[in-house]
């Protein structure tokens, strides 16, 4: 019997606990504030940002939205970040990536105050995560860890194969799962485009995390019977739908489901967890910056 | 036919090139300066520091040695670091670890100016390494990469098993070898004390890096025919020698040599590389801080 993990339900539980945390903060006079900065005309970036703002509103986080013309000089973005760094009402800052080509993305990431870096992408925060003393875990890998926990799958001693080595998923997740810490202690292999026999690696894994950005890369023949399969992919592919496309994961769900013990769907798996963990990081940031203690879920 | 890698010879070549770099710097009026700070009465720490100072002298780096009484208040160390951060004659700072228990080691590591952090342990530098834009690669993993290169072993597409997840070897080496970059692109697995069947993992590897700190953990039965074996271990074990002990690696050299295609000895393998890469980082630091260009080996 295969368990299909309900990411929406797990995320909803986390949001409920965060709402309690936010009540505690608000009672103490602190309204957690998340600034989202959009410098793009890309429709999916716009969608992501508006979803994040809606999430904030729902749980009682003060969402501050800044929009910068995509053609504006890069300095406008850098200065906006400086202002938000200095603003005590803003506890978390998220600049929606990618930024336009004339903007130095690395400079953007590094100029966010590490204490407000709720994406967890600042080098100092990446380094802390590797060292086992993370300030903010990046939202997607953190969401994957929470999903595994909710499913009762403890990575300790397990063989985990992560397919993909991105800065936002593959690398931080690998670094999280090898930690000598609860939710870690896994034997982790990172596979990517230069891996010679991907199927041979995934077939030995207790847990496969697909985060390569390649539609339906992992199918049932590549899995061990009973494996846990976490699909991080969100790929838009042409389809005869009303919109002319559909969203598919990095896993071929139908064939993978035949083999997997536990599997996440797309959508409704990792996606809602990523969104919930952004709220988590914002609450954590507000608590750390104000000294008002909360018990995070 | 097994190749026994001569780390002394490879390190000597690197030191020769660095001597040229140092000539360039000196001609431009810059003498690279490395400060070593010792706050310990541990004999091996004392030995390590004096070796580093001797290495500096040999290549023309200005070695500045600061010794702090192991019983002194922690603030004395913190203030020393502040002073060295501010001293323009000091381009690199190395605090010999471990520090006494009453000193906060994390604070020590974080208080070193990242631009002078030639050990590469500051979170910001760890984060940059993960992001593929390292400022200083930690000396031992960097030395391993250089050794592989000198042996003509390209990790690209290879299966690498790293045994050990320390902050100074296992974690940074894994993060280096998965980079989409020359000397990287390997499929990397990190094993450790919670790995359930270590031999099964090492037996599939093209390259095994033993960095667990467990004497002779890896023997020939755990290796694939023709594997490359890099032994990072330096363990002192009781022996009927004059000193009452001997140094052995994490690899059982005799049995491993029968299987391996390429293998490093202990001593004379990774050890001299680690020392050479500290000089490399110091030269790199001096160049970066003064704007005098050098072509690093």
UniProtKB/TrEMBL annotation, chains A, B:
Instruction: Please name the SUPFAM superfamilies in this protein's record.
Output: Aminoacid dehydrogenase-like, N-terminal domain (SSF53223), NAD(P)-binding Rossmann-fold domains (SSF51735)
Q: What is its EC number?
A: 1.5.1.5, 3.5.4.9
Question: Organism's domain of life?
Answer: Archaea
> Which GO CC terms are listed, alphabetically?
cytosol
Sorted alphabetically, which keywords does the UniProt record give? Amino-acid biosynthesis, Histidine biosynthesis, Hydrolase, Methionine biosynthesis, Multifunctional enzyme, NADP, One-carbon metabolism, Oxidoreductase, Purine biosynthesis
Domain Tetrahydrofolate dehydrogenase/cyclohydrolase NAD(P)-binding, residue spans: 138-289
Amino-acid positions noted as binding NADP(+) in the UniProt annotation, renumbered to this chain: 164-166, 234
The answer to whether the entry has keyword Transmembrane is no
Q: In which pathway does it act?
A: One-carbon metabolism; tetrahydrofolate interconversion
Q: Which reaction does it catalyse?
A: (6R)-5,10-methenyltetrahydrofolate + H2O = (6R)-10-formyltetrahydrofolate + H(+); (6R)-5,10-methylene-5,6,7,8-tetrahydrofolate + NADP(+) = (6R)-5,10-methenyltetrahydrofolate + NADPH
For the Tetrahydrofolate dehydrogenase/cyclohydrolase catalytic domain, which residue ranges apply? 5-119
Quick one: a GO biological-process term for this protein? Answer: L-histidine biosynthetic process
Q: What does the record give under GO molecular function?
A: methenyltetrahydrofolate cyclohydrolase activity; methylenetetrahydrofolate dehydrogenase (NADP+) activity
The record's family statement is: Belongs to the tetrahydrofolate dehydrogenase/cyclohydrolase family.
* Assembly description: Homodimer.
Record's function text:
Catalyzes the oxidation of 5,10-methylenetetrahydrofolate to 5,10-methenyltetrahydrofolate and then the hydrolysis of 5,10-methenyltetrahydrofolate to 10-formyltetrahydrofolate.
Listed name of the protein:
Bifunctional protein FolD
The protein's gene is named folD
């Amino acid at each position: 019997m295969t368990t299909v993990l309900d990411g929406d339900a797990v995320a909803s539980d986390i949001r409920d606990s965060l709402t309690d945390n936010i009540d505690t903060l608000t009672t103490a006079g602190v309204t957690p504030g998340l600034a989202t900065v959009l410098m793009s005309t890309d429709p999916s970036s716009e969608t992501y940002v508006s979803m994040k703002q809606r999430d904030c509103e729902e749980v009682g986080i003060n969402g501050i939205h800044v929009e910068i013309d995509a053609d504006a000089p890069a300095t406008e973005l850098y200065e906006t970040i400086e202002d938000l760094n200095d603003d005590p009402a803003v506890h978390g800052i998220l600049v929606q990536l990618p930024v336009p080509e004339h903007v130095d993305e690395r400079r953007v990431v590094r100029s966010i105050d590490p204490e407000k870096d709720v994406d967890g992408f600042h080098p100092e925060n990446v380094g802390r995560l590797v060292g086992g003393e993370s300030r903010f875990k990046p939202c997607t890998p953190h969401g994957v860890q929470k999903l595994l926990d909710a499913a009762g799958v403890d990575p300790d001693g397990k063989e985990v194969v992560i397919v993909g080595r991105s800065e936002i998923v593959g690398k931080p997740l690998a670094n999280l799962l090898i930690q000598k810490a609860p939710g870690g202690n896994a034997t982790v292999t990172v596979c990517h485009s230069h891996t010679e026999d991907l199927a041979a690696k995934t077939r030995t894994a207790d847990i496969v995390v697909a985060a390569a950005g390649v539609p339906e890369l992992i199918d049932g023949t590549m899995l061990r019977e009973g494996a846990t399969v976490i699909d991080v992919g969100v790929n838009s592919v042409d389809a005869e739908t009303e919109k002319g496309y559909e969203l598919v994961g990095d896993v071929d769900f139908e064939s993978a489901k035949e083999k997997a013990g536990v599997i996440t769907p797309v959508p409704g798996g990792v996606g809602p967890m990523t969104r919930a963990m952004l709220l988590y990081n914002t609450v954590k940031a507000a608590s750390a910056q104000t000294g008002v203690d909360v018990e995070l879920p």
